[in-house]
Amino acid sequence: MIDRATLTPLAAEANRAPSTHNTQPARFALDAEGRILVLADLSRRLAIGDPTNRDMGLSCGAALEGLVMALAGRGLGAAVEDFWAEDAQWRPGYRLAARVTPGGDAAPSPLAAWTEKRFTWRGAFSPAPPETPASLEGWAGRRDDVAFAGGKDTLAFIAALNDEASLTVMRGRPFRDELVLWMRLSPRHPAYALDGLNLEALRMGRLEGAVAGTVLASPLFALADRLGLARTLVSEAGRTMTAAACLLFHRPQDESPVATGRAFYRFWLDFTRFGLAGWPMAVLADVPEAAETLRRRFALPANHRLVNVLRVGPAPVMLPKYRLPAGELVLDQPP
Fold first, then answer.
1. What residues contact residue 132 under an 8 Å CB cut-off, 6+ apart?
2. Which domain of life does the protein's organism represent (predicted)?
């Protein structure tokens, strides 16, 4: 029987999973039958960047997969029910994503060993061993939801497409305001070590962070754009070109976001085994023109949607995960 004391460390392990802007929207509660509810905290939704809540569903699905792995690590099986399509309110401000019934025996997942080693690297990658791209390509070729993109010309194509798509979305002031809301650009920010994107995660110094916050959250960005400077401000092409490869993650078009999020977390852990960090380019999936360009170039299945594109490569250092305290992740049943 799972009780709150047992659920709290399980929730902490589940919350190692990636989430959009490190919003960490997944919450956990026990129902009257001792089943674990996975809930989406709607106060952490991205109203501009994720108007359909799909990315929130993906983030909760990744945390759900982390929970299933955490249970398996304790020898417990898990029967999962996906409730995302029902758009059900658990209590005001929380959407029911899934329900997990622990029971039976389970062997630990081989991917669980990589959950602490998985992290996002937003800087230039270190050179990869010569055999890494070929190993990655072979691995991707054995999967039906990953397309490998390697080689200088291909990386340059994706880098340019990413920069163009990023400029498109960053031109929207509401999008920038929402992004800045989740950026922790000063160590004095009260949530600096808890959630969002802080200076270490963004690979920025204090002065660079202060300038970025000022420009993004003011009319200065529009002025820079009129002067032709905004493209340089958002460009990541130089760092993209240091990646060992890019991996295009795609899943069935009609798949639940929760199921997609579970698969996405397994995918990321799987390539972590190669000693690689990842850096998402979600904008390539979010901007329809960019997604269609990649679909055609890499011949993605017609019944699949592009979920994300990750730059992958060795990171010079390993970054810590900035996460909410475990006690904040577990909620009590409403009266």
1. 244, 245, 274, 275, 276
2. Bacteria
Taking the C-alpha atoms of residue 33 and residue 204, their distance in angstroms, rounded to an integer, is 47
Where do you find CATH 3.40.109.10 in the chain?
Answer: 4-115
Question: What's the topology of domain 132-313?
Answer: NADH Oxidase (3.40.109)
pLDDT by residue for the chain (335 residues), tens only, comes to 799 999 999 999 999 999 999 999 999 999 999 999 999 999 999 999 999 999 999 999 999 999 999 999 999 999 999 999 999 999 999 999 999 999 999 999 999 999 999 999 999 999 999 999 999 999 999 999 999 999 999 999 999 999 999 999 999 999 999 999 999 999 999 999 999 999 999 999 999 999 999 999 999 999 999 999 999 999 999 999 999 999 999 999 999 999 999 999 999 999 999 999 999 999 999 999 999 999 999 999 999 999 999 999 999 999 999 999 999 999 998 76
Which residue carries 């390509």 as its tokens? 137
Phi, psi of 130 (to 5 degrees): -55, -30
Tokens of 200: 């270490």
